Amino acid sequence: MTVHLIVAEKNISARRIAEILSEGKKITEHKDTGVSTYSFGDTTTVGLRGHVVEIDFEPGYTNWRSEEATPRSLIDAKTIKIPTERKIVALLQKLARRAERVTIATDFDTEGELIGKEAYELIRAVNGKVIIDRARFSAITPQEIHHAFSHTTELDFALAAAGEARQSIDLMWGASLTRFISLAARRGGQNILSVGRVQSPTLGMIVDREKEIEAFVPEKYWQLSVDTEKMGERIEARHTHGRFHEKSAAELARDRTQAPLVVTDVKFGEKQDRAPSPFDTTTYIVAAARLGLSAANAMRIAEDLYMNGYISYPRTDNTVYPPSLDIEDILKTIRTSPFKKDVEWVMANRRAVPTRGKKSSTDHPPIHPTGPASREALGDDAFRVYELVLRRFLATLSPDAKWKTLKVLFNAGGEEYTATGGQLMEPGWHTVYPYSEAQETILPPFEPGEHLPFLKVTLDEKETQPPSRYTQSKLIQRMEELGLGTKSTRHEVIAKLVSRKYVEGTPLRPTLVGRVVTESLEQHADMITRPDMTQTIEDHMQQIKESRRTREDVIRESRQMLHRAFDQLEANEAVIGNDIRDRTAEEMNLGKCPVCGGMLAIKHLRGNTQFIGCSRYPECTFNIGLPMAQWGFAVRTDEVCDRHHLNFIRLVRKGARPWDIGCPLCHHIDSNRESLTEIPSLSESLALRLLACHIYTVAELAHSNPESLAKRLEISTETAETLIADAGRVLEKLRRRSECRKFMRDHLTPRKGRSYAKILTSLKSAGITELSGLAHADVAMLHAAGISDAESDEILAQAKIVYYGQVLKEIGIPAVSLKKYVAAGFTSPESFCTHPVDVLSKRTGMSPGTVKRHVDLVCTYLKKPLQKKYSRIQIERGRKELLKIKGIDVGVIEKLSPSGIINASALLESDADKIAAETGIPAHKIREYQAAIQRKRDTAIIQL
Ligand SMILES: [Zn+2]
Ligand SMILES: [Zn+2]
User: Fold this and answer.
1) 604 CA to middle of ligand 1, Å?
2) Does the predicted TM-score (pTM) go above 0.85?
3) What value does the mean pLDDT take over residues 617-637?
4) 670: how many CB neighbours lie within 10 A of its CB?
5) Ligand 1 (single-atom ion) residues, CB below 5 Å
6) CA 621–ligand 1 middle distance (angstroms)
7) What is the average pLDDT score of the chain?
8) pLDDT at 92
9) In the 3-class helix/strand/coil scheme, how is 93-140 assigned residue by residue?
10) Active site (catalytic) residues
11) Rounded mean pLDDT, 351-374
């Protein structure tokens, strides 16, 4: 009996919380429709899967092309909440019905509060009386959890309302604008152009940066340096003027630089090197980027570490440790980690007060370790992240480092030069934090007035550099400065831009589509791409959190903003659409058509068909087939084939690794090479000539005209004819093979751990590549290929029907009749010859005349003797004759007649075992009948 129900954000945190609160009591894990609960005493914990409901428009808005539900109508459309995790919702409500108290223990931030409120509403819907409270914690550690559950509070509805407002606004902006732009550009399906409240301004920044880079005009400048040497060490001193912008001035200074090189001054100094401040989400992501982790990966790993109690909550803006944080205790805890030595060093050398950053907020402390971990338990990547967080924490408690600096001034012919050195005197925090390089430059001692050897003077010509593209972590920093998105969403926004093919590469650069969409929006409704709008909404969120404004009020204002944007957009719909279409057509172009010199481009058709075609179609029919779009949507990449000068092709699919096809023509040639070699009359040299004439496939060859082929390949028409005929035969074989592969795909249900490719290879090695082979395969062979016996029977039966059906059709049996034969159980051509016409006729319901015609066709094809045609009288006579035999009655006659035994002679001449097998009458019985007939005949002869 559950009295106290605890609702956590995820299953893993539900389990951790149960482990902590049970304090050694036995925990019972129970699985209900795949969802786990953890019970101890009268308490049960259950984990959600983040949001278990989502908001969507009420029904009636799914048709993009609807006249009434226009993109603009989505702004004012009513929204509803729909369960996305039905099993969890059902279980939550089932548990809540019986509970006396429910504690919401979701993550402690806006998103977590909203997830908590969603749970609250689901619970209230089934239990109006239950007490619902809220536990807030920043780390899933015993101390924090115990404290949180003994100091529970109320759910913060204002905080949740801010989250809800964001959800509604994001949905209405994203959905209405995405539909508008996609429809204007006539794009649908996988090809839609998405627009979003945070996404579009972020993309705008990347596009702006790209434009700055393009517009950048590098300027030349010159730098002077002089080389000298002391105590065997080479030293480079730079001219104190710095950059010369005039070449003549630099040259003048160079020419004046003359020996002797004299030391004029030596300045010593000391530099304090402050220990770094604690991690908030952004600084953490920047540091993790140096470990080679993308922002999204860094967050995923950090969340995992949090859920498992290794580090504190990773979504935080705070860079100041709160006084309540027991640093002593954390040090003690992590002392048992593999970093014992470093922890002990810090314990012995602690600075008076930990470092602090600029932002202090009350929700979560900065990211810090909460428990010991080992590489074995975490795996490499997670352990590297854990180590980073732990070392950062140690660094914030370590003393500053101290550098000794040295600045030496030189004079050579009146020109002044300088060299600087730095030496780490006290490494301080660098001892435990090796991630930031502390580069030392140690100079030998110098004395003023000292003369040094003058080795050489160098004049370097350099160019100013354009601003650099954004890395993911730099972009996140910039988004934070501009108030774009939140600490929880920034990395997701970037991942979305990548998955929507708006940006690519590291560092990030916009794709053509990303750029075109941004520029169109900028031109016609620039508020969508400017950060100000998003920032305003973020401010409004803050006001909701502080209960200074209501959710409805903020959403209303956002609606008005969006309506204003639509006023501009709708007025320019045609211009925007044409602009995007014209400019993005280029993104599909691959390069020159090898046949006619036109433009090859990727074409996407309805129903997932995609291929590469020529711009001069129908005059030029050159084309290259591509896998269906469900295997990946074809896009071009920047890489270009050295041989064919065509852009490479990549297939991209949501949630899957992209499939790189490379140069489409190289790929086309490679994938047709094997089948071309099957043409016996195609010699190697001819094959090369074929390629040179842009004939790449067996089909193209098979459909060639002999005269023109002869001319193009410079061969005789006769040879060309042979080649074409051979190609036709190979083409037919290829067709049958692909039919066999398709048959296997259609009849084998996909199962984990077995691939069609594997099965097909195995069958191929057993010599089965076509349906004819499959129809005659035995079960053992299929079994060896990984197909179960039960499946094999079904596959063999189906293969027979399909294959024999083809043969019968070829023989000339019309499709309508064929259906009737199959339904009556006559599937093989042989069965036409082994059954009497009247049996076939009776069972199929077709006239004996028609059936006889069919049977004759089949028997002629199989080179079997044509069946005798029995008249009704003959049949009747035979029947009477048989009935006279001892033991034969009407039932036996019915069983015998399908095997063609219609009279005594037929029965006497037949093979008893064969007839037994066909009719089911025991062989010894048949032998008895035969003996009886023989006896009768003998008697008859004697009587004669
Ligand atoms: Zn062409
Ligand atoms: Zn190529």
Assistant:
1) 18
2) no
3) 87
4) 11
5) 593, 595-596, 598, 614, 616, 620, 622
6) 6
7) 88
8) 95
9) HHHHHHCCEEEEECCCCHHHHHHHHHHHHHHHHHCCCCEEEECCCCCC
10) 313
11) 88
